[in-house]
Amino acid sequence: MYHKKNLNEILQQANILTRSDLSDKTILLRSCLNLTINADGKIDDITRLTESYPTIESLALKCHKLIVIAHMGRPEGYDKSLSLFPIYQIIKSKLDTKAISSEFCIKPENKNINDVKVVFIENIRFFPGEESTEELTRNSFINILLKDVDYFVNDAFPDYRESVSTYYLSTKIKSYLGPSFVKEIRGLSSLSTPKRPYIAIIGGSKLSDKIDILKEFIKTTDGILIAGAMAYTFLKALGVEIGKSLYEEDKLDIAKSIINESKGKILLPIDHMVCNEFNESSSYIAKYTNTSQVPSGMYAIDIGLKTINLYKSVISKAKTILLNGPMGVYEWKNSIKGSYEIYNSIIKNIDAYKVLGGGDSISTLNKLHLAGFNHISTGGGAMLTFLSKERFPTLDIILDQFEL
Ligand code: ADP
Ligand code: MG
To answer: Which of ligand 1's atoms lies nearest the C-alpha of 332?
Structure first.
């Protein structure tokens, strides 16, 4: 778990919105706008834009000039399908309603457009300097981005890997955190002193993404409820028949050792929703099993009814609950029930401090039209890193400028 002395006080100082001297300042803001635009041009899940926009608007109202940078997807050079222009258009229409002028800029060199309040730069990953490992290349890109800038602000908690716009800029200029970043850290750092019992519910796709966090949870929580595809790597490792269910062959040994280390803290599904084909075709049949065995030739796609009841009874007694990953293939109508029942029982535990994080976990919540978590983290990998490592480089590089 991330750890820093006097964290709350330092966060207060590092939050750009606590400064009162912004009216003559030019600010370079790193936002998280890593959305998915489908082939039909529609945005898959708007959460990150909803979360990032208020910072853009409030800084634009307070400062002299605001330059916004962000990335989308994993382009290698220019890629029209990953242009931020459609996102800019949505932001522009919102800024227009507040009479805030804005302009889209395809080259960082041209960012100092006169008489415009907000300049929005094209996908920062289109430019080779952003992810370069060469110090010289990075530095010349940094010089371009920081020309005529007074402060850098990082508001992109989910984009936690060290690149120029998430990390190296902060090594060269007075830097602050944006309010979304601060909110994430406050929401997650409450888990360092949890009310007990503290349980983690981990679902989703791959065990390999979540090994570090499971090891951490064995130390910090009172119970770990496993669901999703990774349950089948654990069950297979324990010699349970899993049919054709998704699992990771090269993680069986690690799964076994995690179970051994966990001293009974880990619960696994005791029954399942299974289907005969791994897609919702016309010949697709889905049904519940009665035992932990998955019939041969079948795929487990959700937790079963007995598992739902077992997990609900643990959830109802918890005082702190962290959820990451849906319980099953929530994209299909026959295998969303497990997530619905588990999410709902968490929300019904009104006394508990409840945190949810992860892209698909949020999509599941939105699909189910549920609400009631105390904190929703927009970063999946970032949240798990924050909860399993003592340091968080994109945060530390800024907080170190504010040591008390
Ligand atoms: P998050 O983005 O919240 O961290 P993950 O990316 O780890 O979550 O996992 C989400 C994916 O896991 C979904 O696409 C879902 O279909 C898949 N999944 C969940 N349960 C199963 C299962 N039993 N078999 C196959 N895929 C599953
Ligand atoms: Mg995901």
So the answer is: 16
